[in-house]
Amino acid sequence: MSTEATMEKGEQIYEGKAKKLYTTANPDLLIQYFKDDATAFNAQKRGTIGDKGVVNNKISEKLFNLLEKEGIPTHFVKRLSDREMLVKHLQIIPIEVIVRNIIAGSMAKRLGIEEGTVAKETIIDLCYKCDELGDPLINEYHALALEWITREQLARVKELTLKINDVLRKFFDERGLILVDFKLEFGLHKGEVLLADEICPDTCRLWDKATREKMDKDRFRRDLGNVEEAYQEVLRRVLA
Ligand code: ADP
Ligand code: UDP
Fold first, then answer.
1. Looking at domain 93-226, which of 3.20.20.140, 3.10.50.40, 3.40.50.300, 3.30.470.20 is its CATH number?
2. What are the pocket residues of ligand 1 if the criterion is a CB atom closer than 6 Å to any ligand atom?
């Protein structure tokens, strides 16, 4: 099969809040299409962020390449166009892995901790990936007992997650950004655990090191203005 044939968009198999997935001629590969649509608070707030899809596709490409170089296996194959990337077709593990270096967002609210408090150690939260339930917080016992992940896969997910945090923190720090927290998804491909989905200002909290200005989706969530500008600035720094 020619490489060209695998890049033809086939049938749309999924439309999510921020992306669409298409089949390709190769059943092992999918095309991930990045939209400008933005949602927050379990999709109660909806809008668009101009060119977000293009920016997130390019930021994710750069970060997946960086992580691959550091020995993290990912679903990323290559970027095909402004809004499309070719990825390996995974069976997604239905768990969102949230990493926190600084307390913010839902954790600050839930535990009554001031946003910006530095965590003494890296925190990993697990959420059950289920839109109808609003991705509820779970723990490892839930994940194992309900067979959403095996013990071996969970150990691998945690190992990869901590390594990813080390790599990304350093990368963003060198570009004047603090990696406050972020969300990862993993999936299975031929028995191997791979990093999936996207890594971008939709899924990370990034604060400017000098001004502590928010440079991520919180500008949209909290109506802070200059949303597009912040995404473009993150792209500029990531590619610098
Ligand atoms: P949501 O489903 O939360 O609305 P998106 O709009 O980002 O999110 O949709 C992308 C969907 O694609 C997510 O459900 C994600 O788990 C899934 N996905 C990401 N990478 C892959 C992959 N390599 N193979 C299969 N599914 C994937
Ligand atoms: N996050 C995400 N998708 C989700 C939930 C969280 O990408 O469905 C990211 C979010 O952008 C932030 C981190 O995970 O960088 C922690 O989010 P938190 O649990 O604080 O929830 P939020 O404040 O986003 O509701």
1. 3.30.470.20
2. 14, 16-19, 21, 30, 75, 87-90, 92, 185, 187, 196-197
